[in-house]
Amino acid sequence: MIGSAAGLGVAAPREATLFVIVTFMPSLSTVGGMRLLASQDGVRAWPGGFGFAKVGANYGPSLMATSEARARGYDQVLWLLNGQVTEAGASNFFIVWKTEEGRIQLVTAPLGDKVILDGVTRRSILQLAKERLGDELELVEREFTMEDVLKAVNEKRVVEAFAAGTAVSFLKKRSRG
Question: Residues 100-128, buried b or exposed e (16+ Cβ, 10 A)?
């Protein structure tokens, strides 16, 4: 929604136009799920920026990196900030893994530095997991690195990983080895 009354200045608009955009989303049920390119070459969001808000500033900078990832055969970018996993594309990233002690955790990046979007989808996933899986799954919001992910993959401790946003949710199941 944007103010559409004639005039220039900062004030509550007397008139506004609401845009509803509908788009086709291809099926993502391909074998193997999404392919993410882990990247530190660019930044989707940074501390002190707008990563915590649903604004265009979060999406525009990622378009070139996403195009480059797709040209290389990937579906989306897994954004890293100083080695820390942040988000996948424009969505929150979650990983379910077994700890070295055998506990099962649902891990996602924390909100503290305002790099991660604290959207309704993220909150809903965490709330539903707590309510329905709280006895079997530990919820963890913390910083984690690509090295942490690779170690868990190599040790066959990753159960699954997924990205979820307000527009779409992607899921990739892993073997429970």
Answer: eeeeebbbbbeeebbbbbebebbeebbee
Q: With contact defined as beta carbons under 8 Å apart, do 39 and 69 qualify? A: yes
Fold of the domain spanning 32-173: D-amino Acid Aminotransferase; Chain A, domain 2 (3.20.10)
User: pLDDT tens, 24-47?
Assistant: 555 555 556 788 999 877 777 878
The amino acid at residue 76 is: Q
DSSP for 110-123, please give it: -STTS-S---HHHH
Joined together, the tokens standing for residue 34 give 């999404």
Give per-residue burial for 130-146: e unless 16+ CB within 10 Å, then b: eeeeeeebebeeebbee
- DSSP reduced 3-state for 96: strand
Domain boundaries, the chain: 32-173
pTM (2 d.p.)? 0.76
Mean pLDDT, consecutive 10-residue stretches, the chain (177 aa), reads 84 86 59 80 79 76 86 92 90 94 95 86 92 93 96 95 68 45
